Amino acid sequence: MTSDFTEAEKRGFYKAIYSRRDVRSHFTSKPIEDDILSKILHAAHHAPSVGFSQPWNFILIKNIETKKKIKESFDKEKSRSSQLIEDPKKSKYLSFKLEGILESPVNLCVTYDPTKFGPFVIGRSSIPEAGLYSVCCAIQNLWLSARTEGIGLGWVSILSNQILKESLELPDHVIPVAYLCLGYVDDFAEKPDLESAGWLPRLDLKDVVYFEKWNDKENKNWKSIQNMIKENMDYA
């Protein structure tokens, strides 16, 4: 565990990051092998967590009736959210394929349990949300692991959490954080779907990095990396 990564291993790591996609379509009928699914879940479970609290749980879903209930919630929420925007953007939004609930062989709900290991968790007393952040770290681990195994993953965020809680019989204190669709796909797109569709552009790294203080992009103590960032180097 203490040995350095080889150059090949480093390239594989960055390939997983840069080629990861939020998959909504093109799922195949090929089932996910149990050993592969187990590896992905193990990767998620080895994410960092505040105070080593491991506040996540993973609910695996194949039941078609459960999937249909979740899909109905998606359809209602997508219609409701479309009322927040005007045409022509509204029509474009409604045309997007934004989930693969029924098409993907496995659905997975990742939850947050703030009561795990008791009320006091090291590091959570000042920032209570750190528990939720920990669950997001687990999801990212899961996402990258799935990509390295050639499995597509899509995060469905257009859902009612109340419907999720009812459908999955979650205790009142447990919070659903992510509803994910997993499955093998025909291909991974070159770019994220919403970028390709022109919904929003990808920001350059120089647009989101500051030095020492908010909005300081020209701090003289950081000239070398500023030039690298402005070149928008891509390590994919």
UniProtKB/TrEMBL annotation:
GO function terms (MF aspect): nucleotide binding; oxidoreductase activity
Enzyme class: oxidoreductase
Segments traversing the membrane: none
Pfam family, one: Nitroreductase
Nucleotide-binding is among the record's keywords: yes
SUPFAM superfamilies: FMN-dependent nitroreductase-like
Gene3D superfamilies: NADH Oxidase
EC number: 1.16.8.1
Domain Nitroreductase span(s) in chain numbering: 17-184
Keywords: Flavoprotein, FMN, NAD, NADP, Nucleotide-binding, Oxidoreductase
Protein name stated in the entry: Cob(II)yrinic acid a,c-diamide reductase
Species per Swiss-Prot/TrEMBL record: Candidatus Nitrosopumilus salarius BD31
